[in-house]
Amino acid sequence: MYEVRLPYMSRLTLAAAVAAALIPLAACGSSDSSSDEAWTFTDDLGTKISLDAAPKRIVAQSSVAAALTDLGLGDRIVGTFGPLKNPDGEPDVQAEGLDQSKVKDVTGSGDYGDVDVEKLAGLRPDIVITSTYIEPQLWYVNEASEAKIKKRYDIAAISFQDKTLPQIFDGTERLAAALGADTSGFSEGRDAFGQAAERLQSVYEAQGDPSIVAVSPAADVLYVSSPDANPDLKYYRDTLKLNIVSPKKPDDGGYFESLSWEKADQYDADVAIWDARGGSAALKGLEAQPVWNKTKAGRDKAYVAWNSVAAPSAAGYARIIESFADGLEKVAQ
């Protein structure tokens, strides 16, 4: 097993280092959102938005809505699109913290990214907010829906492409500050993130620095995710020094490599973190694959749920990392 060890850092030192890296960017490019004066904002895609006043009614993709809630703007969220429940019928982790009883779901009934624009219009939003993993493709907004929405409303996007987790937090906080969030409250989430990161590193080292592979099982293929493109995996590998397996031939976009189930044992590892978006059925499907079960993680049933999509806030990822640490501890028991 290839081991990567991090030089000793005290709890306070690591937490302080992480917190320092998470100082938010100034909310430049916007007017005072607490007034009724004209409001302008330039998003991560370079789109300049100009409104008569700061947005008071927001419809956002569910994970972004949860992040804005973390940053004190939950009372502005009137609607969401994208996942709210996981396949097991439980609240989706990416929407954790969002009060789902107070928002209306405007997700359409069509293919991925379909937004019911008429339901959206009924909420009278001032702005629509989402994110992007591969610019300029909008998360949970397909091209047809995007064209319809833009005829009526401005869309602001937070970009995750080629960003570190701290940079993603900065982008979300920059938008939240422009919307009028109290920036003095941002430090609480960053502190929680630093503490969670320190705990995960400690748990990982206590397990003997196991190798970890991130997988997303599907009906016909196994997706092996790359730490070079996925911001959370990159953070675990580069900052916390977890030994995350890197696929050799990622598909277009760089986020994962697709393997047939006949080659599912190509990347062996001590622990498999599996994409929990598929619910418990996804894990059962993975466990049923004979070739996969030749891997050490498969033989040992060393599985940890991986929440690959989370609220893009420091508080959101603090929850994710704490859950990851809990899972690693259980694997060792």
Which SSEs are present, and which pair or pack?
Layout: H1 11-21, E1 39-42, E2 48-51, E3 58-61, H2 62-70, E4 77-81, E5 104-105, H3 117-122, E6 127-132, H4 143-150, E7 155-159, H5 165-178, H6 186-206, E8 211-217, E9 221-225, H7 231-238, E10 243-244, E11 256-260, E12 271-275, H8 279-287, H9 296-300, E13 303-306, H10 314-332
Parallel strand pairs: 3-4, 3-6, 4-5, 6-7, 8-10, 8-12, 12-13
Antiparallel strand pairs: 1-2, 8-9, 9-11
Model description:
By secondary structure, the protein is an alpha/beta fold. The chain folds into two domains: 23-188, Nitrogenase molybdenum iron protein domain (Rossmann fold, 3-Layer(aba) Sandwich); 194-332, 3-Layer(aba) Sandwich (Rossmann fold), CATH 3.40.50.1980. The chain contains ten helices and 13 strands. It has helices at residues 11-21, 62-70, 117-122, 143-150, 165-178, 186-206, 231-238, 279-287, 296-300, 314-332, and strands at 39-42, 48-51, 58-61, 77-81, 104-105, 127-132, 155-159, 211-217, 221-225, 243-244, 256-260, 271-275, 303-306. Strand 6, helix 4 and strand 7 (155-159) form a beta-alpha-beta unit. The longest helix has 21 residues, at 186-206.
Which percent bin holds the helix content?
25-40%
**Major sheet attributes:** 6 strands, mixed
CATH structural architecture of the largest domain: 3-Layer(aba) Sandwich
SSE string, helix = H, strand = E? HEEEHEEHEHEHHEEHEEEHHEH
Helix vs. strand class: alpha/beta
- Assigned CATH superfamily of the largest domain: Nitrogenase molybdenum iron protein domain
Report the radius of gyration as a whole number of Å.
20 Å
Distance between the termini: 20 Å
Q: Tell me the total number of β-strands.
A: 13
Count of helices?
10
CATH topology tier name of the largest domain: Rossmann fold
